Amino acid sequence: MIAKVAAYTEADAERLMADAGIVRNRMKVDAALHNARVADDLAPGELTELLWSFAPAKRHRPSSRNDIPAVTPESTAMAKTLKKRGFKFVGPTTAYALMQATGMVDDHLLGCWVPVMG
After folding, report:
1. What InterPro entries does its record include (predicted)?
2. Per residue in 38-49, pLDDT tens?
3. Which structural domain, as residue segments, surrounds residue 111?
């Protein structure tokens, strides 16, 4: 999928900008296409290994939403490394959201019915 997005053209970017189902911010669309090209240039498995190298140690589930961070030292380090590798429009909050979405961190509240990961 990364290779497919990496091959998107200006016409594809325009099509995305017309898609009411996504955030239509030209800088974000351009960054997503650029980042796909950067990721496509990496060796197979390199992005996965790089991202998971920032996975924090397993911790207890938070007891309230106030206990869920938006940024952590690990997400800050991940964002800095990704920027050094040429990725754009990625900061520590976005990196932490990626950690949540991929299961690197489990921010389900204590007592949530979802089984503890890992």
Report:
1. Adenine_glyco, DNA-3mA_glycosylase, DNA_glycosylase
2. 999 999 999 999
3. 45-118
